[in-house]
Design brief:
40% helix, 7 strands, Peptidase_C85-like, two-stranded antiparallel ribbon, five-stranded mixed β-sheet, 330 residues, Cathepsin B, Chain A, 10% strand, 3 domains, alpha+beta
Length: 330
């Protein structure tokens, strides 16, 4: 087996494990990682890895009928008949399987036991199975998204050994995130219902501040952070889709916060008349046309007994007296 790449353990590598309140502890990757993990689980530290290896190999040697059928025998395992035609791509490949002889199986089995007894030889599922039998335990193996058992027997209850299998072909011992980190692991797993709820919450997309700012700058109206964050969450963190959702549902956005307009106007000393009925006309998109007709407002106010606001007086100071004039709309 080829040497495994050395990489550091990261909690993010095992989200399923993390949601159970567990973690893969750092385990040396020198070919003995599986047996280090077993030793940490059984004895509370990796110091007994060599002894556990020898016990596992001895159990396999004493019970060959349980393991020999799973050994890969390459000699006589098959051959390919080369096509004679020049057009190799169009040729039919014929595989001829020649089963290995009993002598070849026995030789491969002895070679496997010899390799496995040496320090630094990587173990795998055959050795895990032998470990469960030799120590009368069940082994629970965690990977990135799930877990499974290799049991000593299909029935009965036994102690459970917890190990993690990394994507980069490495095994680690498993412990609780809350500890203990030394001594017997005393594994306590969060119940499945709680873990399932936590997994669902952890699947929500990460919403960064820059995403919220991009949405704000793309909207023609104001929306608070909570509304924007919900839109981003609904769309998996996609800024464009979140903007489109908010544009399609403008009624769902909050109204302009109090004081926003005054804060945007700087230090201007001129305030709008809060009871003015032409505010939208003066400040709206048709303000040029509205300026032409706003002169009739004082007439209407006089007829109603109202006094024009200071702002309107200022803006109409240079206009002629329109009491005696007809208004010409241009």
């Amino acid at each position: 087996m080829a040497p495994r790449a050395r990489r550091s353990n990261s909690p993010e590598e095992f989200p399923f494990l993390k949601n159970l309140g567990l973690m893969a502890v750092k385990t040396k990757g020198d070919g003995n990682c599986l047996f280090y993990s077993f030793s940490d689980q059984v004895h509370g530290d990796p110091s007994q890895a060599r002894e556990i290896r020898q016990q596992v190999v001895q159990y396999m040697r004493d019970h060959p009928e349980d393991f020999k059928p799973f050994i890969n025998v390459e000699i006589g395992g098959g051959s390919r008949r080369n096509p004679k035609r020049k057009n190799v791509a169009a040729a039919t490949v014929i595989l001829v399987y020649t089963p290995p002889t009993q002598e070849q199986v026995d030789a491969a089995w002895e070679a496997h036991l010899d390799r496995m007894s040496r320090n630094g030889t990587y173990g795998d599922h055959i050795e895990i199975r032998a470990f469960t039998k030799a120590f009368d335990v069940d082994v629970k193996i965690y990977n990135r998204s799930n877990s499974y058992y290799i049991k000593a027997e299909e029935t009965g209850t036994r102690p459970v050994i917890h190990i993690a299998h990394h994507d980069w072909e490495h095994y680690s011992s498993v412990r609780n995130i809350a500890g203990p980190l030394t001594g017997p692991p005393n594994i306590e797993v969060i119940d499945a219902e709680t873990a399932g709820a936590k997994t669902k919450s952890d699947q929500a997309p990460y919403i960064a501040d820059w995403m919220i700012k991009n949405v704000i700058s793309s909207l023609p109206f104001l929306a608070n952070d909570a509304t924007i964050r919900k839109a981003l969450t609904d769309n998996g963190g996609n800024v464009d889709r979140a903007v489109n959702q908010l544009l399609d549902e403008p009624s769902s956005t909050p109204s302009t916060p109090d004081g926003y307009l005054s804060s945007q106007s700087g230090n201007s000393s001129i305030e709008r008349d809060v009871d003015s009925d032409d505010e939208d006309e003066l400040w709206g998109p048709n303000k040029r046309q509205n300026r032409k007709v706003r002169a009739i407002k004082p007439m209407k106010r006089r007829s109603k007994g109202l006094t024009p606001s200071p702002l309107k007086k200022c803006m109409s100071a240079n206009l002629p007296d329109m009491d005696e004039m007809e208004v010409l709309f241009i």
